[in-house]
Amino acid sequence: MSKKLPQIVKDDPWLEPQTEQIEARINSYNQLKNDLTNKYGSLYNFAGAHTFLGINYDATNNGWWYREWAPAAHALFLTGDFNNWNRDSHPLKRIEGSNEWNGVWEIFLPKEEYKDTFVHGSFIKVRVLSQLGDQDRIPAYIERVVQEPNSPNFKGQVWFSDQTNFDWSGDDFKTSSIHAPIIYEAHVGMSQEEEKMGTYKEFTDNVLPKVRDLGYNCIQLMAVQEHPYYGSFGYHVSNFYAATSKFGTPEELKQLIKTAHSMGIAVIMDIVHSHAVKNHNEGINEFDGTVYQYFHAGEKGDHPDWDSKLFDYSKWEVIQFLASNVRYWLEEYHFDGFRFDGVTSMMYHHHGHAGFGSYDDYFNMGVDVDAVRYLQLANEIAHDIKPDVISIAEDVSGMPGLSRATQDGGVGFDYRLSMGIPDFWIKILEEQQDEDWNIWDFWSVMLNRRANEKAIAYSESHDQALVGDKTIAMWLMDAEMYTGMDNESGSIVVDRGVALHKMIRFLTCVLGGEGYLNFMGNEFGHPEWIDFPREGNGWSYQYARRQWSLAENGFLRYQKLNNFDAAMIHLVRDHHTLEPDTPVNLLNMDTDNKTICFQKGDLVFVFNFHANHSLPNYKFFAGESGSYEILFSSDEKRFGGHDRINTEDRFFTDEDKCISIYNTNRTATVFKKVD
Question: Which tens digit of pLDDT belongs to each residue from 16-30?
């Protein structure tokens, strides 16, 4: 009898030499799952560390428990407002003889005694005595952390959600209503035009309506987890269970999410489980006095590029800390999914600093099997809690099976980010003249993804907008964006830039994946990079904001680009263009005229990338007999074009199922068969 192959091998026969390693991946995860289930009863229970550790109210005993996992610590003391910051009066006791909570310390505060001092909004820390000496730390499972006024120091804050009583009633949004994620990547702090740090409330009031009107059905929030350094973009996390207080209160974040849901918008969290900030005062590094409590010891525990600490995914307590974090954000804040940051760094001991020239590179000794196993676990827990959750992996390596089910040999994500697409566009714009573009390359890069693995396509994200890089708008127009964006300007640089900005984004959106992503402001070609306040720029917020007025004042072409983006998003949503298994049929590839014609779903697309070839009576195979109308053209005046195409025209196929059109240069045109 022939051996049954894992499904990803059946789908990709080139993986057959890796069958043994793929089966080992499946078996390793199944063993972990069985071990955890046997010990905890379910994966859900395993992911409930936050209901035991940290601060939790005990209704039976009428008081609060504070518990901390610190196996190598010599002693712990709770201190704060409740005891006038006495560092000796409230020692924790080590739990003895517990198989489940080995290395955990605890203290109980009876409500009757502490109801007037251990109160909502009060501040606390935990004093840890260890081989490092005597340190005041912030509890690892704390749910709110605030910075002291006029100080770089942070403190934990007691935050009782049962006292804030946030009302989730009426929040009946179903993530399953999102068939293809069209994602607006956003950073709350830099989402306002005023030169300051934005808030959850301002984002709710000012930005969510823009996202709704543009047509995006998801927002992806960056920098949610608490981070001491604003300029880290939220990626140097210190407190994994705390929504950053930089932007407001937990309830204001919850209101943001509830409001988005009322608009039909899912909210995806940019979650960081790939590394942690090194800080002692704010973070969990060397919490119990050892370097190996949460992280690898030695060089293995230090990221070579990010100046941060790397988790040891082989330890149950570590993956429980992280898996419980997944459960916490889904249940406490009603997030609809996660974009897991730094997945490439997690999955390989070399953190992606290696070539991926063959399938061997995805299954050799360079792979961190413990990290892969944790990602499988995190995805299963997320889907158990919320079956329609959206999980996205940021991976540049192309790991086979990344967005496939674990039982098929995959890692369990729903989508992978198509990170090669933005790199391709930047390379084209930086290194080639328009006349040298090979449109076959465009086609192959857009469709280059693994069978049965869904992807989120994007032409640029926040990465391309940071200082030291350039957005697509900047690559196309550069300094002319400051002088030639007036609607009446005759700048040929801007003319080219506006035309190609639309075409690049449109082709990426339509062909690049089963979902699409855009970073806020890039839809209208925001002209400035992102540079957070720092000593080098005088702690200025000038470049840590979004200038919405550019797209709203009515006399700049930024408004036209914004109009196009909205039309593009509504088009692909109305016609279900990005939904999985929507067939794509290449109709014509005209390299001389740099024109690509293809059919996707019920629409026919014509992309003419040529610099100057505008072709009357351009004939191409339309796929089906009948008459066709133009749904829209990127050359319309409302999109910053020249209105060279009459969108009211009707086109009829000949005996060869061909139609003849006016194929204008640097234009994308969309047709639909009407009868």
Answer: 999 999 999 999 999
Number of other residues whose CB lies within 10 A of the CB of residue 515: 28
Residue 309 DSSP label: B
Q: Which one is catalytic: 202, 286, 336, 341?
A: 341
Q: Indicate whether 459 pLDDT > 60.
A: yes
With tokens 């149950």, the residue in question is 316
**CB 473 within 8 Å of CB 501:** yes
**Eight-state DSSP code of residue 217:** S
Helix axes 316-333, 250-262, angle to 10 degrees: 60
Assign residue 251 a region: left if phi > 0, alpha if psi is -120 to 50, beta otherwise? alpha
Element (H, E) at 391: strand 390-393
Strand ranges across the sheet with 63-69: 54-58, 63-69, 104-110, 93-94
Cβ(516)–Cβ(183) under 8 Å? yes
The single residue of 143, 286, 394, 395 carrying the catalytic annotation is 394
556 touches 203 (CB < 8 A): no
Tokens linked to 295: 């992280």
Is 649 noted as a catalytic residue in this protein?
no
* pLDDT above 50: residue 433: yes
Angle between helix 439-447 and helix 492-511 axes, rounded to 10 deg: 40
Q: What is the DSSP string of 535-591?
A: GGGTT--TTSS--THHHHSSSBHHHHHHHHHHHHHHHHHHTTTTSTT--EEEEEEET
Q: Alpha-carbon torsion 510, 516, 519, 520, what sign?
A: positive
Phi, psi of 388 (to 5 degrees): -100, 20
Residue 414 CA to residue 170 CA, distance in Å, equals 27
420 and 19 Cβ atoms separated by less than 8 Å: no
Collapsing DSSP to helix, strand or coil, 457 comes out as: strand
Residue length, the chain? 675
Instruction: Look at strands 218-222 and 595-600 and give their pairing.
Output: unpaired
Cα 263 from Cα 174, distance rounded (Å): 12
Could you tell me if 50 and 141 are in contact, meaning their C-beta atoms sit under 8 angstroms apart?
yes
What is the full DSSP assignment across 613-640?
--EEEEEEE-SSSSEEEEEEETTSGGGT
- One-letter amino acid of 418: S
Catalytic, 299? Answer: no
Three-state DSSP at 405 gives coil
- Residue showing tokens 């306040």: 533
CB 273 within 8 A of CB 325: yes
Count helices and strands in the chain by DSSP H and E runs: 17, 27
Rounded CA-CA distance 586/567 in Å is: 23
For the CA atoms of the chain, what is the radius of gyration?
27
pLDDT digits (tens, 9 = 90+) for 568-613: 999 999 999 999 989 999 999 999 999 999 999 999 999 999 999 9
Residue 364, Cα to own-chain centre: how many angstroms?
A: 28
Backbone angles phi, psi at 342, to 5 degrees: 65, 35
Query: For residues 246 and 224, what is the distance between their CA atoms, to the nearest angstrom?
Result: 9
Residue 20 backbone dihedrals phi, psi, to 5 degrees: -60, -40
Residue range 512-570, pLDDT digits in tens: 999 999 999 999 999 988 999 998 899 999 999 999 999 999 899 999 999 999 999 99
